[in-house]
Amino acid sequence: MDLFDRTKPHVLALFRIVVGLLFAAHGVATLFGVLGRAGRTPEFAAWPGWWAAAIQLVAGALVLLGLFTRWAALTASGSMAYAYFVVHAPEGLWPMENGGEPSAMFCWAFLLIAFLGPGAWAVDQFFSRSSSSRRETVTA
């Protein structure tokens, strides 16, 4: 068990990076018609497609970097819950029949990140270190 405990922050960071990268890539593909999505871009500011893709790009990039990780992950999770219940669920009960598997997986993956935090190698760590060192200086 010691190996699992010691490597948990690093494995969580890898999980965060991969999930954030995949989510941001999905947003880029939708917004710019690249990465296999040629010709299917939503009109600027069109609801909900353009906004969903913008959230995917921005929140995915923030999670990838580990910047404002918990809030970005919570936003991403909520957007995927919305996508699942509004777009996919009316087509059928189960994700396998309604095409909502990616939405469901992203929703739960981001909820996990929101609650567990960014793990190692996150930009957020620089802010927490600098604010804690400022507090130590002020109290000394």
Automatic annotation (TrEMBL):
The keyword Cell membrane applies. GO terms for cellular component: plasma membrane. It is found in: Cell membrane. The chain crosses the membrane at residues 12-35, 47-65, 72-90, 102-123. InterPro entries: DoxX (IPR032808), DoxX-like_oxidoreductase (IPR051907). It is a multi-pass membrane protein. The keyword GTP-binding does not apply. Pfam families: DoxX (PF07681). PANTHER family: BLL4328 PROTEIN, OXIDOREDUCTASE CATD-RELATED. Belongs to the DoxX family. This is Membrane protein. The lineage of its organism: Bacteria, Bacillati, Actinomycetota, Actinomycetes, Pseudonocardiales.
